[in-house]
Write a structure and sequence with these properties.
The protein is mostly helical. It folds into three domains: about 100 residues, Fumarase/aspartase (N-terminal domain) (Fumarase C, Chain B, domain 1, Orthogonal Bundle), CATH 1.10.275; about 240 residues, Up-down Bundle (Fumarase C, Chain A, domain 2); about 55 residues, Ribonucleotide Reductase Protein R1, domain 1. The protein is about 60% helix and about 5% strand. The protein has a two-stranded antiparallel sheet. Strands 3-4 form a two-stranded parallel ribbon. A two-stranded antiparallel sheet has the order 5-6. A hairpin with a 2-residue loop joins strand 1 and strand 2. The protein is elongated, with a radius of gyration of 30 Å. It starts with 17 loop residues before the first helix and ends in a 14-residue tail after the last helix.
Length: about 450
């Protein structure tokens, strides 16, 4: 029951995280195992170098229907077998055999799971799960965020804004350029993510094709393995790649590349959430009130930035799991231990918290407005930021110690634009230079921000 779920992804956030259930639920894992075993059986039939006969088009359809029409009934049948065998992959094998034994394929059922170990089934199933979930849910949502940031960047590329370094007033920027920074960072990391190949293996109990070669010593099983894994790539963005050198366990190094890539993306978005939080705190960004929503149980005026805070918390939680996955998964005692199995089942938790964070961030973005008047007012309240420009021009003109003179004028003091213009008048430079200096304002001293 949802209201008694231990994990908030399957409780409080159940409806929001449903798109990932298609990939990371226990039922989905069983479906992907059936897919791997079914496609392996079809590949053996098509290979023509074994004694397994070639299947008809209708028989291939029968096999593929086992995973294409996989449903809760199918799942329950497997779980019923698993309750007896205490082995989930063997339960999948028995499920497939039982279904095919009632068809024209009944004489071929012993070719199901031929010469392979459960890790062959599992690692390919997880590779497909990662590929499909990234392609259909994670990457499109991240792209949506990037496009939203691009929209803000273009819309406000010319809006001058006070920058802060070390929390102090600094040379101005534009609001749009600051949004573009995050958009560009996301774009770079998404390109890296898309180029990662997800490694998978099909080589038996200790990675040597022992059972394969004892049955058919003349077949080039590594080539068969490469082709079988590569054939999954015909319609997918996130590609699989055959790993020919493994123990029983595919070492999951490519998984770590994916997790580290998403962790970097999550860190960028965490950085963004914290910046937006500060902009909201300064009233540079306002949030649109919804009539029936309550911001505080005691302070009626409040509209809290809860969507960005929710996103921040979920990103941190997801990254903690991704960091653990990266430490744990590449390590397996000798040729195999099973400690990775329960960890792999938690992939959905990390992706779920990431996805929830992305949705919260998008929701937050849909509720904000940029307060241009407040941004300009606060910018103009800090005329001291143009002293960088003034001392730079004075350096160009050969003025002695301009930095130190402006430091004496402004550091630790509140100054006005009039104070700065008065200082300019004291300088021993030409009237032309003085006019040049007085033309510098907080709003036009933004460098190439708009173009960037």
């Amino acid at each position: 029951m949802i209201n008694k779920a231990i994990n908030p992804l399957d409780g409080r956030y159940f409806e929001k995280t449903r798109p990932l259930a298609e990939y990371f639920s226990e039922e989905a894992l069983m479906k992907y195992r059936v897919k791997m075993e079914g496609e392996y059986l079809i590949a053996l039939s098509a290979f023509s170098k074994t004694t397994l006969r070639k299947f008809t088009i209708n028989e291939i359809k029968i096999i593929r229907n086992l995973y294409e029409k996989f449903d809760d009934v199918s799942y329950q049948e497997i779980k019923k077998v698993e309750a007896v065998t205490n082995h989930d992959v063997k339960a999948v094998e028995y499920f497939i055999k039982d279904k095919l034994s009632k068809t024209s394929l009944k004489n071929s059922v012993e070719w199901v799971h031929f010469a392979i170990t459960s890790e062959d089934t599992n690692n390919i199933a997880y590779a497909l799960i990662l590929s499909d979930s990234l392609d259909n849910v994670i990457e499109p949502t991240l792209t949506e965020i990037r496009l939203e940031l691009d929209f803000l960047a273009k819309k406000y590329k010319n809006l001058p804004m006070l920058a802060r370094t070390h929390g102090q007033s600094a040379s101005p920027t534009t609001f749009g350029k600051e949004m573009k920074v995050f958009s560009a960072r996301l774009e770079k990391q998404l390109k890296i993510l898309k180029n990662i190949k997800i490694e998978a293996k099909l080589n038996g109990a200790t990675g040597n094709y022992n059972a394969h070669t004892v049955a058919y010593p003349l077949i080039n099983w590594p080539e068969f393995s490469k082709k079988f894994i590569n054939d999954f790539n015909k319609t997918r963005t996130f590609k699989l790649e055959s790993n020919l050198l493994t123990t029983q366990t595919e070492p999951h190094d490519s998984y770590v590349l994916i997790f580290d890539s998403i962790k970097r993306i999550n860190t960028i978005l965490l950085d963004f959430n914290q910046d937006i939080w500060r902009y909201i705190s300064d009233n540079w960004i306002t949030q649109k009130p919804k009539a029936d929503e309550i911001g505080s149980s005691t302070m009626p005026h409040k509209i809290n930035p809860i969507d960005f805070e929710n996103s921040e918390g979920n990103l941190g939680l997801a990254n903690a799991l991704f960091e653990f996955f990266a430490r744990k998964l590449p390590i397996s005692r000798l040729q195999r231990d099973l400690s990775d199995s329960t960890v792999e089942r938690a992939f959905g938790t990390a992706f779920g918290h990431s996805y929830l964070a992305y949705l919260s961030l998008l929701k937050g973005l849909s509720k904000i407005s940029v307060n241009e008047n407040k941004i300009r007012a606060d910018l103009n309240n800090h005329p001291e930021i143009i002293t960088e420009a003034i001392q730079t021009i004075l350096r160009r003109e050969g003025e002695k110690m301009p930095y130190e003179k402006l430091k004496e004028l402004t550091r630790g003091k509140e100054v006005t634009l009039a104070d700065i213009h008065k200082f300019i008048e004291t300088l021993e430079v030409s009237e032309k230079i003085k006019k040049e200096l007085k033309k510098i304002t907080t709003e036009n001293y933004t460098g190439l921000a708009s173009k960037l």
